[in-house]
Amino acid sequence: MPNLLAKGRLARWSGVAGASLVTLTTMAGTVLAAAAEHAPDAAHGGEHASGGLPQLNPANFPTQIFWLALTFGVLYYLMSKKALPRVAEVLEARQERISRDLAKAAQLKEEAEAILAQVEKSLAGARAEAQGVIAQASADIEANNQARQAQLNADITERLRSAEASIAAAKEQALANIRAESTGIVRDIAGRLAGVEVDQAQADAAVAAVLEERRG
């Protein structure tokens, strides 16, 4: 595409140079003809012609037109074959460099956008992972607290049961000791006061009846 543009510009410039050559040649012929028409009269011919400008002498017009055409032809050739192609190459190289720079800029922009999207995706993933870790840690802490609370309640209940069992056992032992002591005391009192020998079974039954009555 840049090569086509350069060639189009070269063709336009070549056309402009050719048209300029034709125009300048025509204008030169017109100027020289006008100069010939306004040349000095024959009356002043000898002196004035000998001392006038050579380029205004009509006899020199064909030679001047030839050299004018030759000069512009050479200039046209040099412009169309040397200068203008070089200018076209420079323009083409410049256009290609601009196109490469634009393509590189577009590529860099796409890469930057891709990197930005990747970074945003990574940040979103990191946020989600962090929230998941926090939620899991909170759940673990809550579960651990509940487990500890349940274990503490179980330990307290077990200790209460053990204490109640110990108290009940101590109470039974105390009652057994009281019953035994009371039975001995009853037998001793009955023997000393009434002179009656009370056997062990009767004394136990009497003491048990009194204790049951006290409990009720």
From TrEMBL:
Cited Pfam families: ATP-synt_B
Ion transport in keyword set: yes
One GO CC term, this protein: proton-transporting ATP synthase complex
Predominant location: membrane
Keyword Methyltransferase on entry: no
Signal peptide feature range: 1-28
Residue stretches spanning the membrane: 59-78
Coiled coil, from the record: 91-129
Similarity comment: Belongs to the ATPase B chain family.
Assembly information from the UniProt record: F-type ATPases have 2 components, F(1) - the catalytic core - and F(0) - the membrane proton channel. F(1) has five subunits: alpha(3), beta(3), gamma(1), delta(1), epsilon(1). F(0) has three main subunits: a(1), b(2) and c(10-14). The alpha and beta chains form an alternating ring which encloses part of the gamma chain. F(1) is attached to F(0) by a central stalk formed by the gamma and epsilon chains, while a peripheral stalk is formed by the delta and b chains.
Name this protein carries in UniProt: ATP synthase subunit b
Natural source organism: Azospirillum lipoferum (strain 4B)
Lineage: Bacteria, Pseudomonadati, Pseudomonadota, Alphaproteobacteria, Rhodospirillales
Gene this chain is encoded by: atpF1'
